[in-house]
Design a protein that fits this description.
Radius of gyration: 29 Å
Strand order of the largest sheet: 3-22-19-18-5-13-14-17-15-16
Oligomer: single chain
Number of helices: 22
Structural class: alpha/beta
Largest sheet: 10 strands, mixed
Number of strands: 23
Helix content: 25-40%
Shape: globular
Length: 675
Amino acid sequence: MPLQQHHNILSRIGSRIIYYSYSSNMTRTLFSLTAALVGSSSAFTQSPSFSNASFSNPPMTGTMQKNTFLPAGTDLTKRSFSSLSESASSQSSSSRHSMLFAKEMSTYDIDTDENAEQSLADNPITYGANGQPSSPQTVNGDAGNVANRYSSVLESMDLNIPSLKELPSQRAISSNDVFCNRELRLDNIRAIGFDMDYTLAQYQQPNFDKLAFDGAKEKLVNSLGYPKEVLDFEYDHTYWVRGLIIDTARGNFLKIDRHKYVRMAYHGFSPISSNMRKQIYSKTFNKQPSFTEKGYVNMDTLFQHVDAHLFALLVEMKDFGEHEFLDMRTYEEIYRQVRECVDLCHRDGVIKDEVARDPEKYLVLDDGLLPMLRQYRENGIKVFLLTNSYWEYTSTAMNYLYHEKKVDEETQKKNEWTELFDLVVVGACKPAYLKDPYLNLFRVEPEDGSLKNTDGLFEIEALGEGGAEKFLEMGKCFQGGNWNHLQAMLETTAGEEIIYVGDHLYADVLRSKRALGWRSCFIMPELPEEMRIFNSQVDLRKSIMQLRSLRDELGAYADTMRLEMTKASFSESRAMEKKIEQIEEDDGKIKEKLSEAHRQYHSAFHPRWGQMFVAGYQDSRFGYFVKNYACLYTSKATNLGLASAARAFRTSGELLPHDNMLSRPSTEFVDAEVE
């Protein structure tokens, strides 16, 4: 990295680093990079304590404003960001022609040239103060002019692109965009399916979660004999993020990276020290835990925030309270009973009845829902609903979303919303639906929700030619069954012809992708907030990555000198030793500043758990699975309606570390084989 770049980053971070650099002819020059410390680092020296002996909410509940990791006065809840543009593209007659032609291709065929190398990656983009690409070394060039952004690559490839002038000077990236991990052609999709909860039906928070939380509290006390103080518990959904792991045997909550290393851990609401965390989860004599064992629960859906908060409060009560009832129970038993009570609330009417009484309080209307579903059907794509919710609740929620108001009993029985779908499956019991071929299929009578037996695949085959169509003419609403029934009724022959849209990372995305080869779209209501904060912290992230690069470069130089010392004279060896000592001292300074900056960066996303997709400097487990199993991901299902049915989604390209390092403007390749 050039000296000026090091100086710029050190000036912002505020440090004094003295180190030695050497050129290709091994001449060494002493540099002193000095900068005045801007601001105070005192905000980073105090670690928060989340112990809670009173068994009510932990400290800092309800808001992120009291963030001990951020400078005084920082208010994450009152940030103002400029809105990003949103647009929907319409389908032209030419795109309809291309759709018919493309039907002979695969959903993976993004580029028609089959000999083209599709995995080539662009150079990584650096960012300026406005969060836009700024490095002149990237193919985009000057972000202020669209022609300059692509001029370098167009000239090198001898391309004349008249439509370039139609593009805006900067590409707007919106929180309503659909992001791509794996290439996908929508015009080759034959069927698209949707989950309901947190997918088609978005919920008002914390109102909806409180129904399950309060209902579970009452069941724990009134049915299972838990202390009456449990009724005083208050719910705070802001304490949690998706992707955590609950260690039910120990009462711990973990955040792990893609390599299954535990980066952060809490016992109840109390942080676990680094040494204790490593003793429990790393320094074992048998094997590294996979975190898929029986005692671990993955928080893959927003529904599990209720389980987590209630369990953490009970852990605190067991540890610090005087309750013989809890002393006689293990953490694992407590969690199991919490899970049973929360699950019962979803089945016994505690939630359904209240939502039916006042749907406006709990459900979010989206005016893009009906147009999107109708557009897919008009384009010849079959649309199905596949949900674990049972008929009564599905009918209540979908009637409200369809009519955009609470309807009377007579209107609800008509279930006019079913006209949006070719096929409706409730009570699916995912993920078993996607892997157990022996689950029976029942037909649902929409008027009263009663069930009738079917012979499933045998009945479809017995109806002869056009059996699936004849089978659906007898009724298109079902309960249970398995993926064999679904694919037979949809008349699809390959998993890649189906895309399923859902919010559950395991049951909706990972299982359908891994077992059946379905294409997948993951719904993340948290995504807009993650994007807003990332955009506001992009300069700090750039500084952190540059400091890490500097540490790596200094470390490599010091290691080279250590090897040279074995061949050097005594006087030369002593001189090298002093230089190494100076580098180690400088490395310590950088490490200290880097630790402070890293804490500030992650706490901007969440004061306890940090950035959702990142753990340390690696992908978090959550980020890893999103990247590997979600072909697409977006903040809400109706964002798919902003793309035409002819849309081809492309990935941004990926690099391994050696290519990533070589692609930096500050590096040069040394061919060791030639030398």
